[in-house]
Structure formats: structure tokens, C-alpha cells
Amino acid sequence: GSRFVLKINLKPDFPRSPPHVQFMKLYPFHPNISQLSGAICYALLDSDWPKSSNMSLPACKISFFCGLNL
Fold first, then answer.
1. Predicted local confidence at residue 70, as pLDDT
2. What average pLDDT score do residues 45-65 get?
């Protein structure tokens, strides 16, 4: 299997604002992952971010991008 390294930036007002999640170096092929920067382009990590969320929801969605079962 492949190993993917993620960079996760949390803003000072997290969890009211979404984290910025980006793959580093090796990116899985997925239409919601920028092949130029590795950034995840997904509404749940932007405009649809639930204000009371924590990192378990993004982790679940990121595992979907990688084809992983967490």
C-alpha cells in the first residue's frame, strides 16, 4: 500500500472554521484533490463545514479519498 503524508492547518477559531488539509509529495488520484498542490477541494472542508465538528469527520472523508478504511 501507499503512504500519504498530510499537512493539516487549524485556524485559531477551529472548530468554527474548517481545517485546511493538503497532501504532501505523493497525492492519491481523485477529482477532489489538486494534482498541482495536493489541496483537498471538498465543500465539507470549506463552505459546508459543520460549526460543531471535530477532526473525526474530515479524517473519515480523507480516508475515502485514499481508499482507506479507518
1. 39
2. 71
